[in-house]
Amino acid sequence: MELLKKVRETIKKYSMLSEGDHVLIGLSGGADSICLTAILDELKKDFNLSLNAVYVDHGLRPAEVKEEIVFCEQLCERLGIGFFSKSVNVMRYVNEKKLSVQEAARELRYQVFDELSMEIKATRIALGHTADDQTETFLMRLLRGSGKRGLSGIPPVRSSEFRVQSSETSASSVEPLGVKKNILIIRPLIEVERGEVEEFLAFHSSLITHNSSLPFIVDSSNLKKDYFRNWIRLMVIPELKKRNPALIQNICRTADISREEDAYLEVIVTKTLMRLISRKSDDTIELFLSPLEIMEKPILRRVLRRAISETVGINRGIDFVHIEDMIELIKKGKSGDRITLPKCIKVIREPSLLVITSKKPVKIGEYRLQPPCELAIEEADIVIKALFEEKRGDLGDGKSSVLLDAGNMNFPLKIRSRVAGDFFFPLGFGKRRKLQDFFVDEKIPRNERDKIPIVVSGDDIMWVSGYRADERFRITDRTEKFLRLIISNT
After folding, report:
1. What is the 3-state secondary structure (H, E, C) of 70-137?
2. What is the dihedral angle through the alpha carbons of 394, 487, 415, 356, rounded to the nearest 10 degrees?
3. Which part of the chain is CATH 3.40.50.620?
């Protein structure tokens, strides 16, 4: 069989399968997934494969789903393949995540693949994308203005790295699984054209398990021309093929070249980014600003995309215009300037750093402070200790520890975040100073200011915790009652 030979070569070329692999097949009942299932069944003895298949009901075509599930289940029963059916609520996810229907369906579908593959200990997730899908993806991204990475198209093999969150996507109860990098998503039909798939199925009528003239299901949503991909498939590609019958092969070759060049550039980006990182956590990455300011745009764009991916774990929704906005901030912005990207990602230009974060700004609440006591400020992960002392001792450094005149205070004291119009008299400065101006002079990032505890007596600021005390509460020769304030991390 010519098609089987072609798929074998693709599997070998991209090292898709290994001896003893457990493969989970994405089975929709369409021609591509039926062909994939039949071919893997043919190859299972060669690789000693264990096969399972899953049908995902997106809740979008209730009138057709039951028939499709029966069709897929009968096929799997005939071939001796384990079968699962899972349901997801796409429209609820659309409303929650503000995604298009197609984006939401894709994310939930891949979450199901990831959850189930972990549950049944699959090592491969096999999907039925063909060379036609590759061509459609290439043209869609070309028309949207993608760069070389986008024009790389659908990868034949990649790691499954989706973050599984709630078990809403699955009928079974599966705990959150985090990021998975030990499961490969493979596409054995990626070099096969759709015409070849349908020809293969036409000559294998024994696969028919459904009362139909076709050995596969036709998804009615694939016939709607109002979807961008469908318009490309149904209207654009047929016209282009009239001019260039080898369109599919040519575009797939271009995608392959783009993917190889993209992989090479990504090696350069990895080395570059390693030298740029000042600090990194799960939700924040800080990059040295000076090298970014002089970096050439082709590399800078990629570095910024990778930095976002390192921070948020996903680049979907981040478009060319967002990367250009970041470059504008780097090249022309001033310290304190910021932009907000989709998915609540903030990019902040600091004096010597570019901060990319998905962390929500922290604002501390209001606390009552009645010495002697020790108070945990949970929002900021700090503790403030307050105790009276009988005599004048070490005045402290004014930042982590300070000794003040308690005789001028109204108890209980209060701890709060900054409010508009705040001012104080910085110790050693002597003059009234707006708190906002003080924060600017101290180069405190805007996103950090609301979590700085402000200790007040009545309406008067007596200590900007961690930074400066107020002149009005300083120790003098007439001080009789002393209050020690200490701030530390929890």
Report:
1. HHHHHHHHHHCCEEEEEECCHHHHHHHHCCCHHHHHHHHHHHHHHHHHHHCCCCEEECCCCHHHHHHH
2. 140
3. 2-243
Burial of 343 (0-12, 13-18, 19+ CB in 10 A): middle
Q: Would you state the pLDDT for residue 249?
A: 96
Cis peptide before 372 (omega within 30 of 0): yes
Contact 426, 386 (CB under 8 A): no
Residue 169 or residue 198, greater confidence: 198
Q: Please state, rounded to an integer, the average pLDDT across all residues of the chain.
A: 88
pLDDT tier, 182 (very low <50, low <70, confident <90, very high otherwise): confident
Please give, one letter per residue, the 3-state secondary structure of 265-292: HHHHHHHHHHHHEEEECCCEEEEEHHHH
Query: Which of 113-117, 134-138, 206-210, 265-269 bottoms out in mean pLDDT, i.e. has the lowest?
Result: 206-210
Of 101, 140, 103, 128, the C-alpha closest to 235 is: 140
Q: How far apart are the C-alpha atoms of 185 and 112, rounded to whole Å?
A: 13
pLDDT band per the 50, 70, 90 thresholds, residue 361: confident
Q: Which DSSP letter does residue 204 get? A: -
Q: Which residue has the tokens 């997801």?
A: 88
Q: Which fold has domain 2-243?
A: Rossmann fold (3.40.50)
Domain 268-357: which CATH number of 3.30.540.10, 3.60.10.10, 3.10.129.10, 3.30.465.60 = 3.30.465.60
Where, residue-wise, is CATH 3.30.465.60 in the chain? Answer: 268-357
Between residues 344 and 272, the one the model is more confident about: 272
The per-residue pLDDT for 175 is: 38
pLDDT surpassing 60 at residue 480: yes
Residues of the chain with CATH 3.50.40.10: 367-489
Q: For 367-489, which CATH superfamily applies?
A: Phenylalanyl-trna Synthetase, Chain B, domain 3 (3.50.40.10)
Q: Is the pLDDT of residue 167 over 50?
A: no
Please report the pLDDT score of residue 166 as a whole number: 40
At position 201, the amino acid (one-letter code) is L
DSSP state of 181: -
Structure tokens that stand for 130 in this block = 């063909």
pLDDT for 277 beyond 70: yes
Dist. CA 435–CA 430, nearest whole Å: 14
For 85, residues 6+ apart whose C-beta sits below 8 A from its C-beta are 54, 55, 57, 69, 72, 73
What's the rounded Cα separation, in Å, for the pair 93 and 444? 38
